[in-house]
Design a protein that fits this description.
The complex is a heterodimer. Chain A is α/β, with parallel strands linked by helices. Helix content of chain A is about 40%, strand content about 25%. Chain A is built from 10 helices and 10 strands. In chain A, strands 6-7-8-3-9-10 form a 6-stranded mixed sheet, sandwiched between helices. A 4-stranded antiparallel sheet of chain A has the order 2-1-4-5. In chain A, strand 9 and strand 10 form a beta hairpin. Chain B is mostly helical. Chain B is about 70% helix and about 5% strand. Classes of the chains: A alpha/beta, B mainly alpha.
Chain lengths: ~270, ~400
Amino acid sequence: MIKIDALAKSFAISRGQKLSDSEKQDVRYSKEAFHSVRNVSFDCGSGEVLGLLGPNGAGKTTTLRILSTALQPDSGSVLIEGVDVLKHPVQARKKIGFLSSSTGLYGRLTAYENIAYFARLHGMSEAALKQRIDELFTLLNMHDFANRKADAMSTGMKQKTAIARAVVHSPKVVILDEPTTGLDIMTTQTVLDFIRSLKQQGTPVIFSTHHLDEVASLCDRVVVIDKGISAFSDSFDAFKALSADGDLRQSFMTVINATASNREQN
Amino acid sequence: MWQVYFKELTELVRDKKTMFFIILLPILVFPVLFGIMGLVVANVAKQAEAEEHRYVIINADKAPELTEALFYHKNFKKVESDLTDAEALKQAIRDNQFDLAIIIADDFSADAANLTQSKWTVIYNMSSQLDMIDKYFNELLRDYSKKLQLAKLDSLGVTAEKVDALLQPVKLDKVNTAESREDLGEKIGGLIAYILIPLCLAGCSYPAIDIGAGEKERGTLETLLICPISRTSIVLGKFLTVLTTGLATALITVTSFGGWGYVIGSLMGVDIVAKTMSTLGVADLLLILMMLIPLSAIFASLLLSLSIYARSFKEAQNYIGPLSMIVFMPLIVALMPGVELTWSMAMLPVANVALAIKELIKGTIDVGMLLAIFGSTVVIAAALLAFCVSWFQKEKVLFR
């Protein structure tokens, strides 16, 4: 369904920009550019949930932004259902639903209008979008605040609206960038339930997270990105097997330490 | 593109802050402010006119006629003082014992046979914008001098009918070829441009910040970027929104000023507004609007580019502050007295539009120059819009 191969992306460093000591130690900094993503490859089949793990600043968000076509990679390829995302970005965008924890809503528009706006941008007809939004409102139990302005909503209501907006065009793949960071337990549950329901429908989901319990309860596949390189990409069971007692934290550290020692050998 | 446009407009219309800037400010707040300002100025002037000035006169007996006229003038009140020395009088005025001291020269004589010039002194505080003492005293002195003049001339054998020939050998009869419209246009045309152009800028500013930097700050930009519409359509939709609000602000303000002016004018019997409106044809108004459209497009592209670059509302405001200063400079140049619309001035952006608006109101516009200004403004606007569009494609601008 989704195949990502050897992605790389660097950002130019403006002249005169001072690097901090920790940045100087990062192998990805050169004189002219910051090589945020150097070599990321993974794939995800239909109905699979893929968890993207990695330390802060590892390149997770950049990878997901490339996947969602917001950024253009320097090299590598992204295929979604056989469509080359980089060559046909507009076509690919119709297949992608994207959501992050920081995704905002237009505060002065109601829940319905927020969703309808994006539905129209996706080229949906008025009749189709009305029906689809009604469906989503029932699914997410949102009818109570359908006509409330986003400014006047609770965090949970906002997140539900954002979810509905992300999937209003029935995407073929859903990409979530740290969807649960900074959310309370109730709202997190809404997001996790939503991922589960997508999985049941056979829609692949790729999401980045720092919460290993979410990985344990949802993911079929795990990818660990460290310093811009996909250091691990395999099934959840293979990831779990990296540590002797099946402790995910330990598995994660094993991957990170392995890349660190590799580098030292080089 | 239109989806973006209509959504942005809906959102702006719902925003109280924007509505305040675009509608309430020009319709209610500005006229009220200007009204209050006018009232205050009128009141101060009235007060100054009605004020009574205390005076001391030295050697009053030498010029009895003037002394009498002064005594009966409603704005002067005589006070007694023993002081005669100029320095002492000065100090007394500073100490607020009286306001004015008139020292008639010791050797002055009102006698017609006396043919020497006499030097008098007046002492008062001249640091006032409305120097009423000067005005009133000069009126009195002019009448008095005239009488002395005639008496002296008479004593020299100059009869009344010869006086005019002697004092004013040539009398000028001035014939004005300027139509009343041209005259009026010269006086208020520059001012109208001075109000209209900054209003277009102000009307563009807030929405530009809101739908550029605001989109980044709210975190909605990313979602918008991954919608299956081109980034060009997104920018154009936003650009049109900003352009619309800029022009709407200018139009609403002009209408409101016209309306209020008409109301006030008809209430107080001042027909200057009616006169102005009647001299301006519909065609002229449309031409003024035509000039404002590309100018607003320049503002909209500039503001949107800055706003998209900024990470937050605050940052955008910091960029836009200096921009307004830059826009005001050519505007001030255009307003300076003596600056006319020449071909070299026609090349100066913003100033050329201001001058063209003035000429349009005066009714003396050169059509070739109007077209040149319109054309050059359109070219600049198109270039800036193209820049704005390409700017919006850059990752280092969008994801800073």
